[in-house]
Amino acid sequence: MSQSVDYDRFINDLSARRKVSPIRELTKLFTTAPPGTIFLAGGIPNGSTFPFSRMTVELKDGATFKLEGKKIENALQYQPTPGYPPLVEQLQKFQTQVHGLDSTFWQKNSLLVSTGSQDALCKALEMSLSEGDPILVQEPIYPGTSAIIRPLNANMVPIGQDEHGIVPSALRSALSNYGSPEKVSSMKKDVPKLLYLNSTGANPTGATIPAERKKEIYDIACEFNLVILEDDPYYFLHFEEIDPVSFLSMDRDSRVLRFDSFSKILSSGLRVGFVTGPKELVSRIELHTQASTMHTSALSQAIVSSLLDEWGSEKLLQHFKMIQQFYKGKRDCMLASANKHLKGLAEWSVPRAGMFLWIKVPGIADTKKLITEGGIEHGVILVPGKDFLAYDDAQSQYFRASYTVASPEDIDKGFARLANLIKAEIA
């Protein structure tokens, strides 16, 4: 049974003070007004002064598409803050198809295109967190997220993970420290309101939360009145036959803010992501965007939109399958080298998605010095586990290795060097 969510609980005083930009609202009118409308309102530059007339994009399969005429005009001009309208419509259909959303979903939810998913995540956290607020986070945690939270002076409450992601019993235990579900659900301050996690191929562990566990976590979120921040840039980088079930797909209460990105699947340089979730919260992210970047690059959005038009959903999904097979092969190369060089020295779980192998060295209390000094000196660069912890004073026996770019030969050579480093350290 669904329950009503009071979104005021998740909007801090700063965000509540944000007001609609009348100029940004005029841009919506400019892009949607019927033909014949005389527009004398906005400070919009005249497109005839721009030096570009058309752009041609050639794909690796030899296909091309052009931005010309009205398309290039729109791509070079200001666009509404929620996004280039054709792309917003395409992404709503995409989310509906991929996550099996029902026909009523978009009555209560909306979508905003962002400058990469991290920009939307940053604005969501700044919308909700006040100084001293606790926030539930997976640990280890992606450092880009902790870099947003720390300056806000919010208190990260780390929730442990196993090879299947966040452990529900650990989540419930952490919440119980703040009181009963009734108490936690009703308060706006001094209790956790947000749960941050990666649901597929977590960075850095590679863990994917199974559907049954997701349901258990979602039920806990309902019980304690949490909003789930589902940061899922690796959703299409999984190595299973069937796409994972998302928190968004099971969201009966509209309490999931889902962050998606094209960075890992089309281009990291285009800087196009999108956030999907309750209208009351997405509209607050929109107000923040109105006052900062105004909107994601219209040219980047137009390129993505034209690509989606060119490919259609079938070819896009074929592209995702190609990516999955590519990274699965890269993962398997790294696992082979780990078994060859690190067996008996280190431990790891097989990642079911993502870009990383999360490796534990039981014989070393903290890998920071080994990785940052010894690794660089011996020509292998990795990330120490300490960098993924919520608090700097903790130690970590782990490090993160990425299999995305290095060749199989370089991976093998790097792990051979690493094995020698570990042996020397624990000797």
From TrEMBL:
Matching entries from SUPFAM superfamilies are given as: PLP-dependent transferases (SSF53383)
Question: Would the keyword Secreted be found if you checked this record's keyword annotation?
Answer: no
Name by which UniProt lists this protein? Aminotransferase class I/classII large domain-containing protein
State how it assembles.
Homodimer.
Give residue ranges for domain Aminotransferase class I/classII large.
Answer: 72-417
The cofactor required is:
pyridoxal 5'-phosphate
Keyword Transferase carried by entry:
yes
Q: Which GO terms describe its molecular function?
A: kynurenine-oxoglutarate transaminase activity; pyridoxal phosphate binding
**Domain of life (superkingdom):** Eukaryota
Q: Which CDD domains match?
A: AAT_like (cd00609)
The Swiss-Prot or TrEMBL record describes its family as follows: Belongs to the class-I pyridoxal-phosphate-dependent aminotransferase family.
InterPro entries cross-referenced by the UniProt entry:
Aminotransferase_I/II_large, Class-I_PLP-dep_aminotransf, PyrdxlP-dep_Trfase, PyrdxlP-dep_Trfase_major
- Give the keywords, sorted: Aminotransferase, Pyridoxal phosphate, Transferase
Q: From which organism does this entry originate? A: Cloeon dipterum
Q: Which GO terms describe its biological process?
A: alpha-amino acid metabolic process
